[in-house]
DNA sequence: ATTACTGTAATAATATCAGTTACAGTTATT
DNA sequence: AATAACTGTAACTGATATTATTACAGTAAT
């Protein structure tokens, strides 16, 4: 799975966990275990899609702009990783004079579109709020 | 998605399409659009899991050893690409003293295990025989 | 024997992904 | 107004993963 998706989810959960809902790219990067530039790139995308607000300048950072319980992983998936199942590579060749060789690419594509939808449906059932609860439950155990 | 999975599915459909159910690695490679060594590697794996029989030596090649209608994509998936959704990379760090940072890896893992199961369930509903029908339907259209 | 295959390892080429550096723009603080 | 602490991006570098190629031993048909 696309690691930007993971960074995004982790970041959102981290923000949801913060009492004031805020953190800088560096704080997030440390928590996620990656570098701040990558976090900023992902967050920049999340901002454009209305998941977070940004405050530039000193004391700035990111803040959740939606209720954790209202944001599903599917929302994030669609924003950052939609179609990630579809192979970058298509087998076969439309020019082939073989029935299979010439049409497999398209059939395979349809299969993966279906798979992607299936995956989205699953992610639809999990919210950022739930992720936070799960993390907390883990800590108690 | 794992391109070996795609090669495997394409190859099996191609074999199913052959009147005698047989083809050499070179024929398959041409049809799939890749090189014979790769095909042999994938087929070797399929053989070990009982999907095909191999005949070495002159005039040899591969032959489907199960009914196309009985082989699901899930069978192939489990053999060649199971767990492909789970990220190779885990966010966070168990040593972190933050609730989120220390437990997110495990929670994320559980999420992806679920996603993988969801995907398998979907693949369960598609057989090699159906793939062949779809390809044929496409050619008629 | 020769030819046409598979099986597999090793290597080389290529593409993808992640980390780093650099710097312009923004805002709070003093 | 100067400084410090941020975000936003682009460009570059390095690491990693993927794919193709080469090579050769083993097997079976002719």
In short:
2 copies of one chain form a homodimer. The first copy, chain A, has 141 residues and is mainly alpha-helical.
Largest interface: A-B, 51 and 51 residues
Count of all domains of chain A:
1
Classified by CATH, the class of chain A is Mainly Alpha
Mean pLDDT across every amino acid position of chain A:
96
* Most strands sheet of chain A: 3 strands, antiparallel
How much of the sequence lies in strands of chain A comes to 5-15%
Q: Categorize the overall geometry of chain A.
A: elongated
N-end to C-end Cα span of chain A: 28 Å
Q: What is the helix fraction of residues of chain A, given as a range?
A: 55-70%
Instruction: State the assembly state of the protein chains.
Output: homodimer
User: Per CATH, what is the topology of chain A?
Assistant: Arc Repressor Mutant, subunit A
Radius of gyration of chain A: 19 Å
Work out the number of β strands of chain A: 3
Structural class computed from helices and strand pairing of chain A:
mainly alpha
The CATH superfamily of chain A is Winged helix-like DNA-binding domain superfamily/Winged helix DNA-binding domain
User: Low-confidence parts of chain A, pLDDT < 50 over ≥5 residues?
Assistant: none
Strand order of the largest sheet of chain A: 1-3-2
Q: Secondary-structure element order of chain A, as H and E? A: HEHHEEHHH
Indicate the CATH architecture of chain A.
Answer: Orthogonal Bundle
Separate helix tally of chain A: 6
InterPro entries (chains A, B): Tscrpt_reg_Rrf2, WH-like_DNA-bd_sf, WH_DNA-bd_sf
Protein name (chains A, B): Rrf2 family transcriptional regulator
GO molecular function (chains A, B): DNA-binding transcription factor activity
